[in-house]
Amino acid sequence: MAKPVSIEVWNPNGKYRVVSTKPMPGTRWINLLIQQDCRVEICTQKKTILSVEDIIQLIGDKCDGVIGQLTEDWGEELFKALSRAGGKAFSNMAVGYNNVDVNVATKYGVAVGNTPGVLTETTAELAASLTLAAARRIVEADEFMRAGLYDGWLPHLFVGNLLKGQTVGVIGAGRIGSAYARMMVEGFKMNLIYFDLYQSTRLEKFVTAYGEFLKANGEKPVTWKRASSMDEVLQQADIISLHPVLDKTTYHLVNKERLSKMKKEAILINCSRGPVIDEAALVDHLRENPMFRVGLDVFEDEPYMKPGLSEMKNAIVVPHIASASKWTREGMATLAALNVLGKIKGYPIWFDANRVEPFLNENTPPPAACPSIVNAKALGLPVSKL
Ligand SMILES: NC(=O)C1=CN([C@@H]2O[C@H](COP(=O)(O)OP(=O)(O)OC[C@H]3O[C@@H](n4cnc5c(N)ncnc54)[C@H](O)[C@@H]3O)[C@@H](O)[C@H]2O)C=CC1
Ligand SMILES: O=C(O)C(=O)CO
């Protein structure tokens, strides 16, 4: 028998029981649920990653919906328990939902929500930060200063890479990949090469227009290219940033063979999901190519790193913080709560998951809709006409 899990309860007499497996930033999400007659139970257990058994306990005998985290394994056992407790909705507090078996959720009639859009710029900014930190060797230089090793300016001290005029490669030019590409093109006048299964017309138009602007001002225009294969990006780009979803097609997308195709002094950034890179192969590559650098926000076996990675001077590692700005995290909590609430109340699905701003305006009530339900079509849920 698993140990009881500690919880905090809001609005104990609410009609609908909604469980959040973690305390989440801000209070708007709690207030929105309470205003619509929900009893909100927040797990306060001091344990970073809850087990399936812990969550089954939290679900209990009656539960209308759950807000969960990307660290949790939402598969057969949890959706069965949720459905048995009368649950209709689950939402990840994340845009990525590779921790959720959506087919199983659909089988049990449970809607699966995610939180797109609100984290796009914040995540792209972290990818840009890692790019700059890797290009200019900021972490190494900081460690050097703190160790008291600086004894005067030297022509060769921490020489890194100039971004201006170089080529930035983006794999997965969706919301975040496109936002990152724009930052690097506009901010550092880099040329763009991207690979995605779909054409990103908006991104291409942006780079074209910015190139024309530069030309009109007597500067060298930036350019863009849609690559016909991922390898083309790896061979041509000086900086490569990974932004695809994690699924069967993107598991170990960057492996030993592909690493060997990249330039010896290239910089690789990953703010998508750890398993997109074969991390053991990456450690070998970093060891054999000291001028090759990486900036990683995500890891193959989080929270662990593959042996050897933490010793590599040419790697910058941060603990999955790409969406960690206050506004974004509060917004993610709000979208996740509204996904669950909307399904419980029988609201339709918002017409465009890429345009969720109306749900984030704190001065107006949110639309009566679920912001983003990934299995809406499979469940035959109606779409909002708003
Ligand atoms: N590190 C972090 O904290 C965060 C990580 N993420 C990750 O970033 C991912 C992307 O998020 P969004 O940009 O909002 O999603 P999105 O759906 O807008 O973009 C993903 C893009 O990947 C492309 N893609 C899919 N398979 C591909 C393949 N085999 N090769 C090339 N491209 C492929 C899709 O066509 C799409 O354009 C999320 O699924 C999540 O895993 C998102 C937010 C924060
Ligand atoms: O949203 C996601 O997918 C994350 O990884 C955390 O923001």
TrEMBL record:
GO terms for biological process: oxidative photosynthetic carbon pathway. Coiled coil: none annotated. InterPro entries: D-isomer_2-hydroxyacid_DH, D-isomer_2_OHA_DH_cat_dom, D-isomer_DH_CS1, D-isomer_DH_NAD-bd, NAD(P)-bd_dom_sf. PROSITE patterns: D_2_HYDROXYACID_DH_1. Its EC number is 1.1.1.29. GO terms for cellular component: cytosol; peroxisome. It is found in: Peroxisome. The keyword Nucleotide-binding does not apply. It catalyses: (R)-glycerate + NAD(+) = 3-hydroxypyruvate + NADH + H(+). It is an enzyme of class 1 (oxidoreductase). The keyword Oxidoreductase applies. Keywords: Glycolate pathway, NAD, Oxidoreductase, Peroxisome, Photorespiration. Residues 35-346 form the D-isomer specific 2-hydroxyacid dehydrogenase catalytic domain. Signal peptide: none annotated. SUPFAM superfamilies: Formate/glycerate dehydrogenase catalytic domain-like (SSF52283), NAD(P)-binding Rossmann-fold domains (SSF51735). It comes from the Eukaryota. Pathway: Photosynthesis; photorespiration; 3-phospho-D-glycerate from glycine: step 3/4. Residues 129-322 form the D-isomer specific 2-hydroxyacid dehydrogenase NAD-binding domain. One of its GO terms (molecular function) is hydroxypyruvate reductase (NADH) activity. Belongs to the D-isomer specific 2-hydroxyacid dehydrogenase family. This is glycerate dehydrogenase. The lineage of its organism: Eukaryota, Viridiplantae, Streptophyta, Embryophyta, Tracheophyta.
